[in-house]
Amino acid sequence: MQKVRFIHTADLHLDTPFKGLGHLPEAIFERIKQSTFDSFERIITEAIRQKVDFVVISGDLYDGANRSLRAQLFLKKQFIRLEEASIEVFAIHGNHDHLQGKFVQLTWPENVHFFGSEEPDMHSFHKNNDVVAHLYGYSYPQRAVTENIAARYEVIDGAPFHIALLHGTVGGNTDHDPYAPFTIQELIEKPFDYWALGHIHIRSELNQEPPIVYPGNIQGLNRKEEGSKGCYLVELSEAGNHLQFIQTAPIQWQTTTLSAEGIGGMDDLLNGLQKLKETFRSNLTGTILSVSIAPDHPFESEFQDPSVIEEMLDHLQEGEEDEASFVWINRLVVEHRNEDLLRELKDSHFLKEMMEVFDGLDQLDEVLQPLSKHRKAKRFVSREAFDAEEIKREAQNLLIETMTRESGR
Fold it and tell me: How far apart are CA 212 and CA 90, in angstroms?
């Protein structure tokens, strides 16, 4: 029975600067900056351990087109490890690491195959002198590729398995730039056995037969990219297909809420937060944690003073930078429920006008953009991590809290 086994990964984003995290302790920040490299090294180790036939990388190997020599040399070292294990590599470049960048040109090992940028092209994979698979791919010649590249993929006869690498956006996704857009139905109708996608950082199996898969990125880059990150181990055979996700990210972003149930005082609250931290502690990863304290807590007056939250964070963060499996609470959000005040103000002309202002804040990125270019502020600001809806929500909460204090509640 013919079969082929491979690792599918994408969106390595080597060299990511992780802007906006400069306030973290140096030890943790250095681990975060190294995390994309460490995750990919784990993927290569897993490929060797699993004795796969090859590794496919579906774009954005680097975070920028002007990739550093350090990142390229690291990648070459990992590819040499695969070469020594007789494992081949098939890779495309995406919108982040497109081919118009300025960078030092290296000679890659013979087991590495990059796809061209004029038309989708094909490379054959041989095993025991037989052609086992045809792999197809297209590398971005420049950052913005807005045409439907998938429409130009065509199967070439002569192999039992056909695998397509595509860096693009599934129709309807508005969270990412709509590069190389396609529809799921369009991919299903083409006679490929597996679509190895890249570009979207959320892991997603869009279809089972044939498998159409986004593996997500290999390391969360900010708190909007939370949870497990890694790669897929894929086996295609005449008897069927098998997909297994493998976690490799050394740092995870997580978000959770602490219930106010059973909390009667500040000691209870701090103990509850410490216990919550331990539920996220792992032997394999560090965790950057955002915690919301649910409404109906008994600390309304204490939390009117922002320094209380800052001091709680200092207490909860103490010693974590020295832990191999750290849990660093980066954000502590106290939710307020001001239902009585809102009921009184629901017909207020002023409040209605303020809510309309919030609804109209659709150019928030333009407002925040100067901060990302400021000489001092840019260290603490990441435009990629901006969440317009969350910023508006927090601004609304701040308005309500201010009105609550002034009303004497």
Answer: 17
Residue 261, helix vs strand vs coil: coil
pTM for this one? 0.86
Higher pLDDT, 32 or 175: 32
Q: Vertex 196, ends 194 and 201: CA angle to 5°? A: 145
Residue 82 sits at the vertex; the CA angle it makes with 131 and 106, to the nearest 5 degrees, is 100
Tell me the sheet residues that pair with 247: 230
Structure-token pair, residue 319: 């010693």
Query: Rounded to an integer, what distance in angstroms lies between the CA atom of residue 285 and that of residue 280?
Result: 9
**CA atoms within 13 A of residue 42's CA, in its CB half-sphere:** 21
The answer to whether 309 and 270 have CB atoms below 8 angstroms apart is no
Short-list 161, 152, 243, 254, CA closest to 206 = 243
125-153 pLDDT per residue, tens: 999 999 999 999 999 999 999 999 999 99
Residue 327 CA, chain-centre distance (Å), reads 19
Q: List Cα–Cα distances, 13 to 78, 124, 237, 397, in angstroms.
A: 15, 27, 31, 35
Average pLDDT over residues 374-401: 57
- Which tokens go with 183? 């529809």
Give, as one character, the DSSP assignment of residue 323: -
Per the CB < 8 A criterion, the answer to whether 328 and 320 are in contact is yes
Q: What is the pLDDT of residue 351?
A: 61
Residue 385, token pair as written in the block: 């991590």
Please give the single-letter amino acid code of residue 26. Answer: E
Q: Are 342 and 352 in contact (CB under 8 A)?
A: no
> For tokens 């809290």, what's the residue?
401
- Give the burial string for 201-227 (b: 16+ CB within 10 Å, else e): bbbeeeeeebbbbbbbbbbbbbbbbbe
Would you list the domain boundaries of the chain? 3-247, 251-335, 338-409
Structure tokens at 139: 């590398």
Instruction: Dig out the tokens for 242 from the structure.
Output: 């098998």
**CA dihedral over 206, 247, 137, 103, signed as positive or negative:** positive
The tokens of 56 are what?
């496919």
DSSP symbols for 86-130? T-EEEEE--STT-TTS-----PPPTTEEE--SSS-EEEEEEETTE
Helix, strand, coil shares of the chain, percent, nearest 5, are: 35, 25, 45
> What's the CATH code, domain 3-247?
3.60.21.10
